Amino acid sequence: MVNLRIFDLKKYKKFVQQEEGGIAIIAGFTLFALTVLFGLAIDTARVAYVETKLSHAVSAAAIAAAKYETALANENAQKVFDANFPQGLIGSASVTPQITISENGDRVLVSANTTLPTTFGKLVGVNTLPVRAIAEAVREYGELEIALVFDVSGLTAFREIIPNMKVAAHSFLDVIFASDKITGSSVSVTPYGGMVNIGNTHTDFVHNVVTADSLFTVNSFPPGEPWKGCVGRRIDPLEETEDAPSVEKWPVYFSRSTIFPAIDGGAWPTDHNGSWDNDWSIDGSGNVVQETIIKDGPGATGRVTIGPNRSCPPALLPLTQDPTVIRDYIDNSIESVFGGGTFSNLGMGWGWRTLSPNFNGLWNAVAIKPYTTPSNLKILIIMLNDGNRWLDGPFQPTGDPTAYGRLEDNKLGTTQINFTKYEIEQRTAVLCDRIKAQGIFVYTVSLMVDDLATRQLYGACASEPTAYYNINGADELEDAYKDIAEDILLRVRRTL
Questions:
Q1: Is the pLDDT of residue 16 over 50?
Q2: Of 427, 425, 468, 476, which Cα lies nearest the Cα of 448?
Q3: What is d(CA 392, CA 418) in angstroms, rounded to the nearest whole number?
Q4: Which residue from 54, 133, 239, 319 puts its CA 20 to 30 A from 253's CA?
Q5: How far apart are CA 366 and CA 226, in angstroms?
Q6: Is 452 exposed, middle or buried (0-12, 13-18, 19+ CB in 10 A)?
Q7: What three-state secondary structure class fits 145?
Q8: Stated pTM of the model
């Protein structure tokens, strides 16, 4: 017998309705969870974006605070933060950075906190999300190579300039060498007048044979007065360069006697009608005898050094890291030199060569670093008193002997004494541009300079307007050099 089961349609419909209800509930929960997860992903991305912007802002603010003057650290940090993080970014709450500076000013901590409203997080009771960022900047100091260039021409003997110059130099060194943050400081000192003295040990810098431009060698000097170390100028345009002696050597400075007939075998002078400006002879022992005495300075208490080394200033001091050596040199070597004139281009050129890597190993001193050395700052500071001039004393011929020979030799580009200032300053301007082009930072100091063109030259020569100091009295030198030293310490900072 066949047993047939009757299908109950009503019961099937009821079962299906019950199953559909359960699936709908599960689907609803699943959809809600997916929506929340999707929303949280969006909120997380928004937080990451704000956090990135906030981190960049606090980092930039910390660097700005550490890089520049400590007194302006908070102001600089706030300005930079505001420039990098707009208030209310995609709805974030207003934020003010917290800036903390260490007691010695070398460490800066900047932090910032804000909140960001959620979009989908509200579905699970999360209305805002915190955003935080913190950054720290530490000041480190690099190395310094500094060339001090001083005018020691005869006019510095007046108004107590030399004593004040020495005080200013010592105060400058006090600031530079007192800093325990600088990893190394080297200083050179170059006195100049109508020429520069490179030191009599540097015979490899000068011609050792007679040439058309160099009529004398170190062997031309009498036994009783050997070559002191002063040099002439190189043939244009090499004098206004940092080219090493291997490119072109310098002529030996030798000031011929103005006694007629010339005792050195030359034809000049061809006449002599009384006392001239370099009358000297040689005695039987080979010593120089000054035949005409020329007095100069306050109360005529100074004397021009008549002889083959006439008006040769003290030898320059190459770079050294020993402050005792520098101080001894300033105390015992810096002095006014009478006669010749004031040629700032010569002082600036030799100051540059004490910093130039082209002369590394030639000065028998500390190593000179390449211009591209990271964290190394090269500084040149030149001081000019009164103004540039080719001095013309009361004796014949016109124009004292200088690194450019005699005025009549036309080595400066003129034979007219009134035009020499222009030629000197044109060469100084060329040097300024070339020195700054190598990344050397230049400070200029003009002391009691009345001539507007000279002040404008020195103002333009300085690397920045604030790096030019025009002062009216010798007693202002100390404050100027202390200010320069403190400014250098700010510039040598390297923020990591």
A1: no
A2: 476
A3: 10
A4: 319
A5: 27
A6: exposed
A7: strand
A8: 0.75
User: Model confidence at 296, in pLDDT bands (50, 70, 90)?
Assistant: confident
DSSP 405: B
> Residue 471: exposed, middle, or buried by beta-carbon count in 10 A (0-12, 13-18, 19+)?
middle
**Residue 487: strand, helix, or coil:** helix
In the chain, the domains with their CATH numbers are 24-140 (no CATH), 143-495 (3.40.50.410)
Question: For residue 275, what pLDDT band results from cuts at 50, 70 and 90?
Answer: confident
Instruction: For residue range 443-456, list pLDDT tens digits in order.
Output: 999 999 999 999 99
Q: Which residues have a Cβ under 8 Å from the Cβ of 60 and sit 6 or more positions away?
A: 80, 81, 83, 84
Top pLDDT among 493 and 478 is at 478
Strand-pair partners of 187: 146, 320
DSSP H helical ranges for 141-203:
161-178
Radius of gyration from C-alpha coordinates of the chain: 38
Question: Residue 328, Cβ neighbours under 10 Å: how many?
Answer: 12
Residue 1: predicted pLDDT: 40
From CA 155, how far away is CA 172, in angstroms rounded? Answer: 23
User: In angstroms, rounded to a whole number, what is the distance separating the alpha carbons of residues 366 and 370?
Assistant: 13
Could you tell me the CA-to-CA distances from 384 to 156, 204, 269, 471, 474 in Å, in that order? 10, 30, 33, 11, 12
Helices (H), 383-451: 420-437
CB 252 within 8 A of CB 232: yes
Name which residue leads in pLDDT, 152 or 179.
152
- One DSSP character per residue, 465-486 reads GGGEEEESSGGGHHHHHHHHHH
Supply 117's token pair: 């409203």
User: Roughly how many angstroms between the first and final C-alpha of the chain, as a whole number?
Assistant: 99
Q: Which residues of 268-298 are buried (b: 16+ CB within 10 A; e: fewer)?
A: bbeeeeeebbbbbebeeeeebebebebebbe
Question: Which two structure tokens, joined as six digits, stand for 89?
Answer: 């970014």
In 3D, which of 317, 329, 199 has the Cα closest to residue 253?
A: 199
Confidence of residue 375 (pLDDT cuts 50, 70, 90): confident
